[in-house]
Write a sequence for this structure.
C-alpha cells in the first residue's frame, strides 16, 4: 500500500482504478477490507482512495495533533492535496461520515458528491457515550480487549440475526483480538473517545448541498438507528435509502444493494 506522511505519522491508503475520484471513509475498528466489495465494483470506472484510520490496518499511531474529528477531516484533505486531487466523491460510513461531513462543510469546493452511510452528525446520546467510555476504561485497564468484551463489541456492528460462525463475523472478532497493547492505548482508545465526545453538527447540515448528498442506513443498524438518518435527511433535504438485511457495516452485509445504490448515485453526480 502507498503511504503519505501526515502530521508526522504514516497514513496508509489504497489507490485503485482510474476516473473521477471516490474517497471511502471507514468505520472505527475496521480497516480497508470493510470496503472490499465496493472497491471491486467502483474501481472499474472510478479512482478509489481508501485511507486507513490511525492505528488501524497498516497506518501509524494517532498523531499528537489529532484532538477532534475536525483533525481527521483536515488530515483527509492533506492526503487529497498530496495526491493532487482537486475534487472527490466522498463515501463515509460511521466515523468516515462524521469526518466526511466536516470536510464537506469546511471545504465544499473539494466535494463533488457526499454519501453518508450508517452515521450521525449530532452529538452522541449521553447514555451511549457513557457506555462506550466504560468499555474504553475496561480495555485500558486490561491493555487488551478481554475475551468477554469481544462478544459485546463485535455484535454491535452487525444485524441481530447474523450467523456468528460466519467468516464475516469471525474475521472481525479475530481482528479485534489482534489489536496490540500499543495500538489500543495509543490510537484505538483515544480515537474512540474523540468519536463519541464529538461536537453536534446538526445545525450546520442545511449548508450541505441536498442535490449532491445521499444518506444510506442499514435497516437493522443498532448503534446508528434509522431515526438518526431520517433526522439528518430532513435537515439536509436529501434522499435517504434504507439498506435491507443490514446492520452497521452495511457495506459488507448487503454489498450488492450498496454497490448498486452508490453506482447509481455516482452516475448522476460524479
Amino acid at each position: 500500500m502507498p503511504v503519505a506522511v501526515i502530521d508526522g505519522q504514516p497514513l496508509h491508503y489504497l489507490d485503485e482504478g482510474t476516473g473521477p475520484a471516490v474517497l471511502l471513509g471507514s468505520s472505527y475498528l475496521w480497516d480497508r477490507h470493510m470496503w472490499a466489495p465496493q472497491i471491486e465494483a467502483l474501481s472499474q470506472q472510478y479512482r478509489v482512495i481508501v485511507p486507513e484510520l490511525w492505528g488501524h490496518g497498516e497506518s501509524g499511531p494517532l498523531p499528537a495533533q489529532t484532538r477532534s474529528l475536525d483533525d481527521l477531516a483536515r488530515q483527509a484533505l492533506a492526503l487529497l492535496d498530496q495526491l493532487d486531487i482537486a475534487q472527490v466523491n466522498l463515501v463515509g460510513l460511521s466515523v468516515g461520515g462524521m469526518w466526511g461531513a466536516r470536510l464537506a462543510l469546511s471545504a465544499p469546493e473539494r466535494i463533488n458528491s457526499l454519501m453518508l452511510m450508517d452515521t450521525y452528525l449530532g452529538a452522541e446520546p449521553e447514555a451511549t457515550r457513557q457506555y462506550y467510555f466504560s468499555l474504553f476504561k475496561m480495555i485500558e485497564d486490561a491493555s487488551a480487549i478481554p475475551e468477554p468484551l469481544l462478544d459485546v463489541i463485535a455484535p454491535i456492528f452487525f444485524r441481530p440475526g447474523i450467523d456468528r460462525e460466519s467468516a464475516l463475523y469471525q474475521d472481525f472478532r479475530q481482528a479485534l483480538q489482534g489489536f496490540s497493547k500499543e495500538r489500543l492505548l495509543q490510537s484505538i482508545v483515544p480515537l474512540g473517545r474523540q468519536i463519541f465526545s464529538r461536537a453536534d453538527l446538526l445545525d450546520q447540515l442545511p449548508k450541505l448541498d441536498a442535490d449532491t448528498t445521499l444518506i444510506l442506513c442499514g435497516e437493522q443498524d443498532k448503534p446508528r438507528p434509522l431515526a438518526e438518518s431520517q433526522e439528518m435527511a430532513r435537515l439536509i433535504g436529501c434522499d435517504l435509502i434504507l439498506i435491507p438485511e443490514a446492520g452497521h457495516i452495511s457495506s459488507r452485509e448487503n454489498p450488492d444493494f450498496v454497490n448498486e445504490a452508490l453506482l447509481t448515485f455516482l452516475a448522476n453526480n460524479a
